[in-house]
Amino acid sequence: MFEDVVINVEDLDAVYDIDIERNVYVHAVDGVNLWIRKGEVLGIAGESGCGKSTLARVLYGFINPPLRVRRGSVVINAGDRKYDVVSMSLEERRARLWWKVISYIPQNAMNVLNPVERIRDHFVEVLKYHASSVDIDKVAGFIEGIGLKREVLNAYPHQLSGGMRQRIVIALALMLNPRIVIADEPTTAVDVVLQRGILQLLVESQKRLNNTLIVITHDMGVHAMITHRVAVMYAGNIVEVGETTTMFENPLHPYTQGLINSLPRIGDKSTRVGLAGSPPDLRNPPPGCRFHPRCPYAMDICRKEKPSINIVDKDRIVSCWLYKKR
Amino acid sequence: MGNLLELKNVTKIFRYGLFGFSFKAVDNASLSLEDKPLIFTIAGESGSGKTTLARIILGFHTPEYGEVLYKGKNIHKLHGAEVKWFRREVQAVFQDPYASFNPLKKVYNYLRETAINIAGIDKESVDSYIDEVLKAVGLSLDKVVNKYPHEFSGGELQRVAIARALLTKPRLIIADEPVSMLDASLRINIVNMFKDFKEKYSISFIYITHDLSTAYYISDSIAIMYRGSIIEYGPVDKVLTEPLHPYTQTLVESIPTPNPKARIKWLETIKLSGIIEEKEFIARGCKYASRCPYASKKCFEEPPQDITIGNRIVKCWLYSNQKT
What we know:
The complex is a heterodimer. By secondary structure, chain A is α/β, with parallel strands linked by helices. Chain A has ten helices and twelve strands. In chain A, α5 (162-174) runs parallel beside α6 (192-209). In chain B, α4 crosses α5 (126-136) and α5 (126-136) crosses α7. In chain B, β1 (3-15) and β2 form a beta hairpin. Chain B has an eight-stranded mixed β-sheet with strand order 6-7-8-3-9-10-12-11, sandwiched between helices. At the A-B interface, α5, α6, α7, α8 and α9 of A face α8, α9 and α11 of B.
C-alpha cells in the first residue's frame, strides 16, 4: 500500500452476538475495505444503524463482547512500526495505541467526564499513564489554545456548560498529538452555532498537527463543510467512497443520491423526495445488495448477488451493479 | 378575516425550589395565525422556550400573564363541551413516538379510542375509518392492527402518531420536533406529508423545530425564539434569506449546508462564548446582548421593543430608527 496510509482496513467483518449457541447475531460491518491517509479529514456517513459507529469502534480497537470481529484486518501505521489492531490484546492497545497513536471522541462527549474529578485530574491521569512527564502549565497553555480560561482546570464538570465540557474532551483527545483522531457524532446534541465552533476547532487542530481526522456523522451537511473524502455506509457495507466535492456534485450510488437529494436547503423550495421504506434489520439482512428493497433502480441481479467493488475513478469507489462494466 | 389562533403577551414563569430562582421560559410572546391553511414554524435552539410555548398553546401549561385565543376563545378558560371541541380541533404530534405510546398497549387501541371518544365515530364504521386515515399516511389497518409500539420502526410509528392526530379531523396540528428522531432520508417524507395535508385537508400546522432547513422548505411564516423571547417573526422566505436580527443571522450562517462550495465562508472562525445560559434568561436588557457583535450600552440596559419592518417584526435596537 501507499506510504501515506495510516489505517488500512481489509475485508472487515464484525458482528454483535445475540445468541451464540443458535448463531444469531447482528451483522453490523460486512466486508469493509477502506484506507485512510495521513493528513486527511475522512467522513463516514450513513443513517442510524448502518454500522458506522461499530466500524469506528473496531478502528479504535475497542472490541469487547458482544462485538466480535469475524474476519479481516485493521492495520494502523504508527510511523516506526505497524500494528494489527484486531489481533492485539486489550492491554497492548491501551499501552501502545490509545491516546498517543489514536484517540477517540465518543458520542455525547459532554457526558463522559468523571463528575467527582476536577478537570485537571482528567488531564493528569492521561499524562501519568501515557506521557513521560506531567506538566500542568503545558496543559493550561493547551486549554487556552482552544479558547477556554485556565481556571476551568480547577472546575468540576457540572460547573461547565455542555459546550465547554465537549471542548475539554476534545482537548484530552488531542493532547498527546495522536496521528489519528476519531470523532463519533461530535456535535449531535449541540446547537448549530456551537456545532460550528466545535467543528472549526477540530479542523484547525487537524491542520496544525497535520494528522488524520475521522468524522462519523449522519449529517451530510457536516461532511460537506469539513471532510476531504466521504465513505457512505448502508446496512454494514461501504457503498461509496469519494472526494467530498465530487461526491456532492455527482453522487453515484442510488443510496448516496437519495441521501443528498432528500436534504432541503434554505433558498430552494423545490420538492424533495426521500427514500422509500426503512433500513433492514441486520439480524437478517436482505440477500444480494442490501439496498435493493429500497432502490429505485433495482434489477434482477441486485436481488441475488452482492455487488462487487467498482473503481470508477481515482479515489472513487462505488459498490453497485449499475456501474459494473460489462 | 379573523385569526385562527392568537397569542397576546404570553409569559410563563418557571420556578426552581421553594424560594429559589425563577425565570421566564416564555417572555411576552405575541403572535397570530390567520384563519387559512398555513404552516407556521416556531424555531429556536434548545432552551429557547419553543416547546413551552407549544405546551401553552395545547393548554398543558397556563401562562402567568397574557392569553391564548383559539377561534376567539381563551383556551385556558374552556368549560364542558368546549374542552372536547378544542381537543377535536387542535391535535398534537411529539418528538419521540415511542414515548407517546404506552409500550404495553397495541397502537390500534389508541386509534380506536381517539376515533370513538374524541372524533365521535360510531363503533360499526370505526375500523374502516381508521383504515382510511392510515392510508393517508402510507400505512393501512392490517399493517397496524396487531402490533405493539416496539414492532414499528421510528418512521412508521411517527406516521401512526400523525394518523392518530388526523382521526379527529383537526383544524390545527401542533408538531413538536416531529422529525428530529428520524433519519434524514425519512424526514423529508414526513414533512412532505404536512405540506400535502395542508393543501388536501386544509389543516394548519405549528411546526416546532431547531432545523431551519426543513422549516424553510415547508412553512409559510416563522418565529425565531431566543431565551424565551420571539426575536424575529415574519414570512419564512424573508426571515431566513434576509435575516434582520443578529441572532437569526448567526443561526442561518452556521447551518452546515450539503454544498461543499459554501465551506470557505462556513469555516471562517467564530468565537465561542463561555456565557452561562441561566444568566441570559434573567438579563435586564436584550438577552442576546452578551453574544451580539453589535451590542451597545443600551442593549444591556433596556429590553428591545418589537419593531415592524415591512411584514416582519424584529426585536432589536439596531432597527429602532427605521420605523416604517
